[in-house]
Amino acid sequence: MLWLHGINGPVKGRSWQLQGTSRVGRMDHLEVCLDDPSVSRTHAELELSPTGWKLRDLGSTNGSFLNGTPMGPGQWPLRVRDLMQFGDVALLVEGIDHPNHAPTANPVDEGAIQKLLQAQNDSSFHINQPIKMDSGLELRLEASSDSSWSHALIAPLADPQQADKADLQSSQALMALLQSSRHLMFVEREQDLLRSILEEAVQVLKAQRGAIVLSQPDGSLRVRAVVEGDTFRSDFASGASNFSKSLAERVYEGRKSILCQSVSNDPALNAAPSIHEGNMASVICALLRTPRRVLGVLHLDRSSLQPPFTKGQLELADALAAQVSAGIEAAQLLQAQRQMFQETITVLGQVLELRDEYTGGHTRRVTRYAMLLAEAANLHPDEREWLRLGAPLHDIGKIGIPDNILRKTGPLTPDEVTQMRKHARFGADILATIPSLSRTACLARSHHEWWDGSGYPDGLKGEQIPLQARILALADVFDALTSKRPYRQPLGLREAMAEMEKHAGRQFDPKLFKLFQALGDKLLAAAD
Q1: How confident is the model at residue 179 (pLDDT cuts 50, 70, 90)?
Q2: Contact in structure between 257 and 286 (CB atoms under 8 Å)
Q3: Phi and psi for 53 in degrees, rounded to 5?
Q4: Three-state DSSP class for 239?
Q5: Average pLDDT of span 11-21
Q6: Is 261 in contact with 294 (CB distance < 8 Å)?
Q7: Strand partners, 233
Q8: Residue 246: phi, psi to the nearest 5?
Q9: What does residue 354 show for φ and ψ, rounded to 5 degrees?
Q10: Contact 68, 90 (CB under 8 A)
Q11: What are the residues whose beta carbons fall under 8 Å from the beta carbon of 51, sequence distance 6 or more?
Q12: What is the residue-averaged pLDDT of the chain?
């Protein structure tokens, strides 16, 4: 938990209580909304990491400061009584509740802070008394755990009188780990969730590498995420050797977690290419499961230069796997729901196209072009998702335009142009009435605004135009130029870019156009 207090400006006296990674900025949907013109739309991020709360600037216009020091790239750790400044707005860190939070405050002008409010005491984390229970684990050449989901969570907390020093340390680490894993409940994207799980597991269990392998609809296992050192990967070639497939399959099919203290004791395992290529000497495979189903395997390994994993560390990994599996399952269900929602929206956009025989496939192509540009522009993942949802419906307002205007093959009269332009307002009004799509209304309304302020319907200029709408405008015009129309043939890639370049800085955001232009052949591939 992170407690913040507003010091000046429009947020003076306001307080925030943050439970998970949050963003700071001027946009009203952000967790910390600072309604001040000196603050960027999406200004900074407060991340809850396994090692504590951290602050990161997101490329803001006026910068972020910590205790008066301008922030560079990367993340900066936060401490109690830190003074953060975003543009002209200052916030004070009143309190931090985190098991790995160091109580020492960063250097700051205590006199100035005391005048603002009384210093807050740092909270303490207390480990509960250990729970006595029979863990029921076997220790053979391989140690294994077939604990139920609920027992796995408390098995590592066995009587410390019966545990060796390493096991006791693991039990204590488990308590801190379970406490710090609370933020997993607030991670919505599966990729971010898997990364958080692996970073925690690798850090606490001192592994050289961690991988999450999830089951597929056909029953096979597929590696979905790997953390090795400071590197995170989620895209893999078919032959990637980031885990022991045979050991993972043994765990998945046998429905129990396994510790292989030394791979050299298992001839079949020792001969596997993945073991040699990955320099794996000791491996833990913990079963990812919920009370409802088995999800896959958490795979951790150590090199020949590290001591082998212990039984206590198997228990710790097994408990972690049980702890985080519900989060993985929820993220998968949420992803499936989003996919269904996206498909419904796409179909709706395609149905709207049936009214205009000359725009078939327009929404599909525009969405693909827009997503390519959003990635090139490093748009925040949340904003990309809203763009993905809103792009297929950017012309939904045309449902209110008469057919004789919408399907006219010749030039429109001035009165017809006025009527046609109303589709931007119509579309925004429609989307604004749907709670799950209200944030996409700005795309329908503003994708015909021009950088120089001569667009419609509001005459917005420059960065007054929402970034997502500026991205969509480029994708929309490019598709119009490269598609067949009743009054002209489609332009090729070079011709279309040359035509659009004439309007960069007038119709289009010039920086975004440069990024769009650099996409080149990727745009042609996305059109297929």
Answers
A1: very low
A2: yes
A3: -80, 140
A4: coil
A5: 88
A6: no
A7: 226
A8: -65, -40
A9: -65, -20
A10: no
A11: 77, 100, 203
A12: 79
